[in-house]
């Protein structure tokens, strides 16, 4: 007290004023600006339907959770984000769509070093889903342009890019029935691939499942209001197809034939991760790629719209941290029962899973290779 008396009152006031300025500048102003930015920003996320917030995860009887220890890299440095894989058994060639706009041909051998990678056709944009038609034409879901057909000679043709007057923004998954009918998804008619995270953060169903009939050139909407509609795969008897909705951790069954024709049932939900592409292996199992496991971060993000809004605003100014982890591929039987999961804590962005012979191949959105494991040697075992 005695000390303070000695201090001239003016100095004391100046100190207080500068301290107040300091608090204002460092604490109050940024918070006020943040609140203002938050309130003014028009991004308006919606709560997800209750089911999407389920904390439950389906029981998976067998698990190999260290697949990277066993994995071989295929085409290292030559493949840029090989998203989906399609196999031509006759030639033994795997086709994959890369982020440089090329469809590449990969001739795989038992020794990964003998693998040959060749540029096949440049389609541009960002090819995602790939599937062969009965006539061996390759159907490509090119995220920006729409549904493409590449014939044997490598000629590219646009099949369709809109339905009911609404353009596709993010053509994503595709499969072709034995009768030639093409089934595919547009993940979002609002956000393109560069902004796909905003679709997930907004939490509204802008996705559609559609068919394209090459004999009539008709595009038909089969199911609307889907949450980031992703992979598509036909059942072996062609009576139904399975399609995946990424943020809802589920895949549904669309009946193509029979008395339930045109209706949708649950196929598998409460997946251990967020589904991307799905492929049938010709041997009783669908393989569902999971770019990321369900994690605490994802639970929080999906549960709270204000967290998603904050993330959307931050994404304008910075690169959001990658919260994908523990990705893998899940094998599911024809009844929609989970059979085995092949994952790794360090795997992320796994976009496709394709079983060819004894190998499981992993497509990936970002790596410069795809990965494979020998399923005989590294089989999943009963989870303890
Ligand atoms: C479908 O479109 C292709 C390419 O534009 C055209 O060659 C073909 O005649 C069309 N088929 C029908 C049935 O309209
Ligand atoms: C896969 O692993 C099994 C068991 O170790 C082995 O016998 C087989 O040769 C391997 N397959 C290939 C194609 O390398």
Could you tell me the CATH topology label of the domain at 85-324: Neuraminidase
The small-molecule ligands in this entry are: 2-acetamido-2-deoxy-beta-D-glucopyranose
Measured by DSSP, the beta-strand proportion falls in 35-45%
In what order do the strands lie side by side in the largest sheet? 21-22-23-24-1-28
Report the helical percentage.
10-25%
General form = globular
Low-confidence stretches: none
Family: Belongs to the strictosidine synthase family.
Protein name: Strictosidine synthase conserved region domain-containing protein
InterPro entries: 6-blade_b-propeller_TolB-like, Strictosidine_synth_cons-reg
Main location: other
Description:
The protein has helices spanning 2-6, 9-40, 67-70, 196-202, 296-303, 305-317, and strands at 62-64, 72-74, 85-88, 93-97, 102-107, 116-122, 127-132, 138-142, 146-150, 156-160, 162-163, 166-167, 171-176, 182-186, 207-213, 218-226, 229-234, 240-245, 250-255, 264-268, 278-280, 285-290, 328-333, 338-343, 350-356, 359-364, 370-374, 381-382. It is of the alpha+beta class and 384 residues long. A hairpin with a 4-residue loop joins strand 21 and strand 22 (285-290). The protein has a domain at 85-324: Neuraminidase. The termini are far apart. 18% of the residues lie in helices and 38% in strands. The strands form 7 sheets. It has a 6-stranded mixed beta sheet, with no helix packed on it. The mean pLDDT is 92. It contains 6 helices and 28 strands. It binds 2-acetamido-2-deoxy-beta-D-glucopyranose (2 copies).
């Amino acid at each position: 007290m005695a000390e303070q008396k000695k201090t001239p009152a003016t100095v004391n006031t100046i100190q207080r004023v500068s301290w107040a300025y300091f608090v204002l500048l460092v604490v109050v102003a940024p918070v006020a600006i943040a609140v203002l930015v938050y309130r003014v920003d028009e991004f308006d996320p919606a709560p997800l339907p209750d089911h999407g917030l389920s904390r439950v995860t389906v029981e998976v009887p067998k698990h190999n959770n260290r697949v990277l220890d066993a994995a071989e890299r295929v085409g290292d440095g030559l493949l840029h984000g090989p998203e989906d894989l399609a196999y031509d058994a006759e030639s033994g060639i795997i086709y994959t769509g890369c982020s440089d706009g090329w469809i590449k041909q990969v001739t795989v051998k038992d020794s990964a070093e003998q693998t040959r990678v060749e540029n096949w056709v440049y389609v541009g944009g960002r090819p995602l889903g790939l599937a062969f038609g009965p006539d061996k034409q390759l159907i490509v879901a090119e995220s920006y342009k729409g549904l493409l057909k590449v014939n044997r000679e490598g000629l590219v043709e646009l099949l369709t890019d809109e339905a009911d007057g609404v353009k596709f923004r993010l053509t994503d998954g595709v499969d072709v029935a034995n009768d030639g009918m093409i089934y595919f998804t547009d993940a979002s008619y609002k956000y393109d691939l560069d902004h796909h995270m905003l679709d997930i953060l907004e939490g509204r169903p802008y996705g559609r499942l559609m068919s394209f009939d090459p004999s009539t050139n008709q595009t038909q909407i089969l199911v609307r209001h889907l949450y980031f509609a992703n992979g598509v795969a036909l059942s072996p008897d062609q009576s139904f197809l399975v399609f995946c909705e990424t943020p809802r951790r589920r895949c549904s069954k669309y009946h193509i034939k029979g008395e339930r024709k045109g209706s949708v049932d649950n196929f598998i939900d409460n997946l251990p991760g967020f589904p991307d592409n799905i492929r049938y292996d010709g041997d009783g199992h669908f393989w569902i790629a999971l770019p990321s496991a369900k994690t605490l971060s994802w639970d929080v993000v999906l549960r709270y719209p204000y967290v998603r809004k904050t993330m959307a605003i931050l994404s304008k100014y910075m690169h959001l941290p990658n919260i994908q982890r523990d990705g893998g591929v899940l094998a599911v039987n024809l009844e929609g029962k989970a059979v085995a999961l092949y994952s790794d804590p360090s795997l992320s962005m796994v976009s496709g899973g394709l079983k060819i012979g004894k190998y499981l191949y992993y497509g990936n959105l970002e790596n410069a290779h795809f990965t494979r494991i020998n399923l005989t040697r590294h089989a999943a075992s009963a989870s303890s």
